[in-house]
Amino acid sequence: MSTVKPVIVFNILFLTLLMQPPPTLPLPLCRSSCGSIAVNYPFGIDDGCGAPQYRKMLNCSTDLFFLTPSGNYKVQSIDYDKQTIAIYDPAMSTCSILQPHHDFVMTDIQSVIIPPSPDTVFALLNCSIDSPVLNHYKSLCFNFSGHSCDELYGACTSFRLFHLLSNSTPPCCFTAYDTVKYMSMNILDCTHYTSVYNTDSLKGVGPLDWLYGMKLSYSVADTGCDRCKRSGGTCGFDIETGVMLCICSSSVNSTRECAAGSAADMAESHTLSSSLQTSVLVLVLGVVFYLIL
Ligand SMILES: *[C@@H]1O[C@H](CO)[C@@H](O)[C@H](O)[C@H]1NC(C)=O
Ligand SMILES: *[C@@H]1O[C@H](CO)[C@@H](O)[C@H](O)[C@H]1NC(C)=O
Ligand SMILES: *[C@@H]1O[C@H](CO)[C@@H](O)[C@H](O)[C@H]1NC(C)=O
Ligand SMILES: *[C@@H]1O[C@H](CO)[C@@H](O)[C@H](O)[C@H]1NC(C)=O
Q1: Residue 138 domain flag
Q2: Fewer Cβ close by (within 10 Å): the C or N end of the chain?
Q3: Is the pTM of this model over 0.85?
């Protein structure tokens, strides 16, 4: 029965290893996703992450939201190659739901670095005949991809109401972001609006199947973030001064790039490989015990 002993010793050693808590990994300083949406440079969820110009533009509560003075808009997707972000205002009217209007307002910085794309069109609906876009600023209205604004009154259950109530077709206008940027809905004298994006690809597609929401086009200044990323860091900034930082781990911030071995993911792989070393050691010890006893 002497062979039982080493097996027991081996098993105890093996169980001890299994019961060890997993190696504690450093908490990431900058979350890199919110739900299913990846959050990369220039965006950041946590303060001090991403580019300073985009500070406090995103909120990851239940979902990812884009914050503006007129409200929080749900982020549908971010395309880092095309540098666009699709957002949706749950309080906006669409083809199927009529909701009270409110203005779409961006901060001055937002309207410069992340404005709605040229293929995002605003539809101003139920305008009064005195509306500036029907008079002096008529030239701001256009039709896109063969669609006229009046089509919405016929095709959408929500907007058909205007037609029914007035027993006529109230004026409306497809226009670009600049119009709503410079004129509030009160000045425009229209009671409702909706917005549609990817308008270039909506030829022959009915209003029920349009993409409601907005596509924003953002720009990023080259501040050397690639160099930081290549070295294993995350781009961020000093929240006091706004100066760019390359965040390497919870204890090391460098200005440009991370020194070899200082980045958080390197620390992580180091911890993992050392736990691998431990298990090899335990196995060797087990075999040694087996041979001795
Ligand atoms: C590194 O920068 C981040 C983000 O600005 C900050 O939260 C953290 O305290 C900094 N760490 C050190 C050691 O300076
Ligand atoms: C983030 O969103 C949540 C839920 O919508 C809200 O309660 C919170 O105030 C928001 N934070 C900011 C900074 O807007
Ligand atoms: C449409 O606009 C008129 C004023 O121009 C307003 O009286 C009416 O209530 C609006 N219709 C809806 C459904 O809001
Ligand atoms: C848009 O199309 C409608 C219907 O085809 C037309 O009556 C209207 O003049 C057009 N508007 C513009 C600005 O071209």
Answers
A1: yes
A2: N
A3: no
